[in-house]
Write a sequence for this structure.
């Protein structure tokens, strides 16, 4: 039973993917009153008023943050603005959600974690993909010990296509090729592999799209203390693709060969007989992210997407690039602090 009313707002109401509206609708669905929106573009604020006639709109962040009746602000802006805007939001005494990725630099992520702690405010990152149906199915198979212990993971996103000519292909703004879907992939990985990351290797290719500053192709090789190895590859120059996900365990394996049809391929053994079968994926429940946010703020439930976890992703992404540029295998900052609550 929710006992306190909370009011939310968004900073950023851009037209791409209409994410401002998506966040507002999910806030509202789970009992957070959507109160206000802010965007530098007055035309986008006109659109927000059409979508939600009852809200207030602003074109200056400072004016939005002066409003005393707003409890929560979600930041939906380019990656390089996340850290300074989150600092402003937390500094104003309001809870903060950041669209993924949390930010570009781990040192900024750490500063935000500590700022939120010092002010007793919630800070979270919109890793709603934790509730993808295929991923919930993978976790269920692991919990039922059908796969055994994972020891090798491969993830791939990309193909051969020229990057879109906008801020996501500008490294100064986006952070680089690994910061978009790579952040989701890392979050998937760290949710099923326990323990500390031991080292990271990185490899970068810049061969074709020289008019864009994002990398053409990146590989992150992540080794864990428990011996598990993971390989995440992001590419815009891969003429041949491969499965998005391949999880190998001591008792079975999962490959996403039919994920678009809502199925995973399970490879295992039953009483000495090799078995290959399709497993139906659970329903997608990405909107559950805001259910947890509301439950946390209003009822004190445990926050599922913790800021320390999001900081960890940024540290691994950033370390991948440093490892690639130096040609060295590197350790990851903040790993000693990763096991939140343990």
């Amino acid at each position: 039973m929710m006992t306190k009313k909370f009011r939310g707002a968004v900073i950023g109401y851009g037209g791409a993917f209409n994410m401002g509206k998506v966040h507002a609708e999910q806030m509202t669905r789970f009992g957070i009153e959507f109160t206000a929106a802010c965007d530098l573009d007055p035309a986008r604020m006109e659109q927000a008023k059409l979508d939600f006639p009852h809200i207030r709109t602003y074109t200056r962040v400072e004016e939005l943050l002066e409003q005393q009746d707003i409890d929560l602000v979600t930041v939906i802006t380019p990656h390089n603005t996340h850290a300074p805007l989150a600092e402003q939001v937390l500094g104003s005494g309001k809870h903060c959600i950041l669209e993924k990725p949390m930010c570009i630099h781990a040192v900024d992520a750490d500063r935000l974690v500590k700022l939120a702690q010092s002010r007793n405010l919630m800070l979270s990152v919109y890793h709603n993909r934790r509730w993808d149906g295929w991923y919930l199915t993978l976790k269920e198979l692991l919990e039922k010990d059908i796969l055994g212990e994972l020891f090798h993971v491969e993830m791939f996103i990309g193909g051969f296509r020229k990057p879109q000519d906008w801020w996501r292909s500008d490294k100064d703004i986006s952070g680089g090729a690994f910061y978009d879907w790579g952040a989701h992939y890392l979050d998937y990985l760290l949710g099923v592999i326990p323990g500390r990351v031991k080292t990271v290797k990185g490899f970068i290719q810049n061969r074709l799209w020289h008019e864009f500053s994002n990398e053409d192709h990146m590989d992150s090789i992540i080794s864990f203390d428990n011996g598990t190895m993971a390989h995440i590859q992001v590419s815009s120059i891969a003429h041949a693709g491969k499965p998005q996900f391949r999880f190998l365990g001591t008792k079975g394996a999962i490959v996403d060969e039919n994920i678009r049809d809502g199925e995973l391929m399970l490879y295992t053994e039953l009483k000495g007989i090799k078995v290959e079968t399709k497993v139906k994926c659970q329903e997608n429940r990405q909107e559950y992210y805001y259910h947890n946010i509301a439950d946390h703020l209003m009822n004190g439930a445990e926050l599922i997407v913790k800021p320390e976890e999001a900081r960890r992703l940024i540290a691994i992404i950033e370390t991948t690039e440093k490892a690639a540029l130096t040609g060295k295998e590197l350790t990851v900052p903040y790993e000693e602090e990763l096991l939140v609550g343990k």
In short: The domain at 6-129+295-300 is CATH 3.40.50.720 (Rossmann fold). The radius of gyration is 21 Å. The chain has two domains: 6-129+295-300, 131-286+315-337.
